[in-house]
Write a structure and sequence with these properties.
single chain, alpha+beta, 20 strands, 24% strand
Amino acid sequence: MFKRVLIANRGEIAVRVIRACQELGVETVAVYSTADADSLHVQLADRAVCVGPAKAAESYLDQMAILTAAVESGCDAVHPGYGFLSENDEFADLCAKCGLTFIGPTGDMIRKMGNKSAARALMKASGVPVVPGSDGPVADAGAALALAEEVGWPVLLKASAGGGGRGMRRVDAPEDLERLFHEAKSEAEACFGNGELYLEKLILSPRHIEFQILADQRGNVIHLGERDCSIQRKNQKLVEESPSKALDPALRERMGAAAVAAAKAAGYVNAGTVEFVLAADGTFCFIEMNTRVQVEHPVTEMVSGLDLVKEQLRVAAGLPLSLTQDQVRLTGHALECRINAEDFRHGFRPCPGKTEFLHLPGGPGVRVDTMLYNGYEVSPYYDSLVAKVIVHAPTRLEAIRRMRRCLSELIVEGYPTTADFAHLLLYHPDFVRGRYDTGFLTQHMDELLAWDRGEAPRPAVEEG
């Protein structure tokens, strides 16, 4: 096992990785920007190094600054978390050149799978069903327009190096494509340091189903079941759960087998997520593979009893997976609500500010991943995610009731959050009965806001 690991990230995921390292007896080095000098991950790590000013491009995306911090602090490995440099093949290559283990796949694997357009081409060649679209990156807006006319409108422009909905735009008509192409390209360059885009036919209102993959250096590949991430707003996931009500055992087995086949086709190593769109008729298509730990990984941890970050560390250190596929036991139901510093009553406007008071929920089957503490200043420079509330219970209904209780207990004073929005959602009859897809919020947002304003009664849900 490693002696000392640098965490090339911030916020709740940096805290999450530090805790896993501590439990394995591994020392940690945090990096931080000047805006994050008082952040929790800086306080919890054994050592912290400032790598630049507030702007991510000058700190958390500064590869040389982070590598210098890792080498000079005597680290033997780097954990990238999610976002920032986590799917940057160049950074993974540079870690290796500096004698550092990148806790994730190699640069070559990221080029195969982390680069979304390259992954599509590989899956297509390997027989895994893919959504119609480009075989690789599109060179410019003109090429994107020609392909969109071929596959049919609407289409999605997506960042090849992207994730989390960044660098993604829906295009409904030809006259909008050039503008949205440049918007997506600029956002991708700012978020990932790579403006490459690819194009897909937009499958309207599917379920978004992803399978968690683990693979070691000895050729062992397993999956840990699915997560349903269909509750989204502008391609940003808000609620995730496992298992999905949309899958029966036979479909789950087929999709899991396809996910494992996808990982094996790439010779994949470490943790990853294979994402599919699932149509109402049960057909599914590969859309991308995320070559990193996901924001929603706690959902899988709750149903599997496995610590995914520790498994990442084990695999990167050359150790085998701690279990085989036939030893995987998925029990109960898990649900995660992302809590963002946003005002959902005004278009989910980001609302950074000082955390004047904080109270976190607890009790059986409850977990909260956060970097918040009383007095913590939420920065305007980074993503608005401030906490994740995760629950586990024997049944889906019990998990929903437990989450309602937790969101009622959660208190964050100083700025608006999306906790009240998530609480409203958990009472919607269609959500309670599992009847939702990626178009759910587009269809029901006005209804949820009317409940919030007291203009319409919240229905008494017949649960069961």
